[in-house]
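Researcher: Let's run the pair from yesterday's discussion. Sequence first, then tokens, for each.
Model: Starting with the first of the pair.
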Amino acid sequence: MIDTHCHLNDGVYDSDRKQVVDDAILAGIEYIIVPATKPDDFDKTIAIAEEYERIYCAIGVHPHDASAVNDAVLCRIEELAKHPKVVAIGEIGLDYHYNFSPHDVQKKVLAEQIAIANKLNLPIIVHNRESENDMMDVLHANITSSTEGVFHCFSGDLEFLRKCLDINFRISFTANITFMKNNMDLIIENTPMDRIMLETDSPYMAPKPNRGKRNVPQAVSAVAEKISIIKKNSLNEVIQMTTSNAKKLFKLPLLMLLFLVGSTAHSQTSPSSAPNADSLYYDDDEYFEEDYDPYNRVLGIGLLLGTNTIVERYSTAPNNVSQDGILSYGGLVNYRFAEAFMLQTSFMYGKNTKVDSTVDPTIYTSIDLSVLGIIKPRNAINFYGAVGMAYYINKYGMMDSTGLRYYETHQQFGINASLGIFFNFSLKTAGTLVINGEWKLNFPFGKMHRSVDSRYSKSDERHYNPVDFGIFSSVPRGGIIWYMPFFNKN
């Protein structure tokens, strides 16, 4: 078997890369193709390919880092692509999911790297994410009749598959085809066996039972097994055909001989050491995982700060009395019980000092339990809506006829609704940090009763009449939440 796309240049392999390679060879992996993804990867990728006989590599810049590409980088790609162990230009392409680089820059850099591949007669390894139309436009404008390539970690629909096959490109599948939420059966059924290749995209997308853990090259066998089931071919037939497809595209047997002859000469211009790579530099392919979240959030605790506007509603004029800008603070606990849903309990406390100086400040306290529904929960930014139940405890400062101050306490149940946004920042082994902004509306049930009518001054006899009134509040609030790593669901 050949793992045609494996990021062994990732920093997560720095401590045991040799053992990973040895284990893969013992498991029957014949070759491993390691693609570069950014300019800082180039030297390290070449060094790894030089060190291990069974490893070949590709040189290119991923669309996430397209903005970093200039003429010097392009010259560097062309220079390194002449190395006898470089078998392709890649990983290159378009990614409109994260948009880390502008679309026009991504398209320009893709075209420039295709030109290098055409000049050197090398295939291209293509990354496509939500960019199908522009991808085909760029390819049709820049490839020639002799340009070959592979769409790695294929995730397009049937129409896009046919367009890829029409330009004679290969289709590579990862363990995402084994995930229940990513049914690729129809795509695989319609992909001819002589166009299929296997990959792991390690360290990402490990198949069960190692989901969410670091992937390894020998896990490509799970991809082969799934394809054999869907295509109704024997596992041996799938392995033989996909291995042959990879060897033809990357010309691996021929390059084995060239490396033995040419590596000594090229070593004079290739650095023998490499800088450390950034660990987990991009997480786009992790998005396909059925139960992997790059921003792992299970149990989180946080602090809240907001301003509360309380509106008291009376049946007699003046009908509405608003208490604005009441500084409120508190805390929350979030529990993510499903992919796109969280359970949240929060506590808010506010003190209204803008009252008659002869009475104590009014104190507003709320405890709520809400369910949050999150849009695109694995993205770095999430929008959400929430509804829930709440318990309100309001304490109103009063003064009796003798001048004694006291509180009247009102307790009520109610409902709340809110809209908000999460900004997620992975702290890796330390968990996840989330910045939260939210607008919440609170609606206590029924009426409140007060022994005096605070709408009127104490010199007005109406002040001493008992009064019933309804209440609702509007609370724009922000928070910072830490999701603890001890409850990692991955």
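Model: Moving on to the second of the pair.
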Amino acid sequence: MTRQPAPFQSPGQTRTTPVPPDVRAHGLWAFESRHDSKFVMPATIHPFFKLLLIREGAGGVEIEGEQKPCRQGDLIIVPANIRHRVVDLPRSPLSLYGLGVSLQQLPSVVSILEDLQPGVYGESMFRTLRIEQRLRKLLYLNDQNDAAGQLSSIATALDLLAELSLALNPPRTRGALKTAPSVRHAAGKMRICLTIRCWKHISPGCTAIFTNR
């Protein structure tokens, strides 16, 4: 049975409750959420890693009971199995993009996610990564039922996470950016993750992409 794409939130439509989790068979969940002024999120624990980009509004995020402010342009990192909730300012409700990554379905990404600590990160730390554009791309790709779209969404997500790890964990000596072991190690992990995930866990449909030419 072919899985139907989740309903896309139409322009102007707002929510009073969080978007229900919908991790797909290939291990990703990409979503958009525009909050109503009455939006309420209970404290939640997910078995997957979650990344949130604040597009509009202001508020806060509680991570393990500690609340931190967030605003437009901020990035929120929530590791798997961490209690958290988003709290909006009623006069400035949030609009955000999100990405969920299953550690069970994408085990090769675990080493990268271990470098991403929970918290709120200002836009200046990752401005060059084009995160909003990549998340918009994932919103489209993640709803494709064909093997090529799923493979592309995995590659896009892993590339984003690897570059984010580099941006948030830079080498101590700025001048050594190109040769620092930590940079080479993280970049190598990205390539290994792509290779392992795309071939070790590849589906028959994805294999056909490379063989039926």
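Researcher: Give me one sentence on the second I can quote.
Model: DSSP finds five helices and eight strands in the chain.
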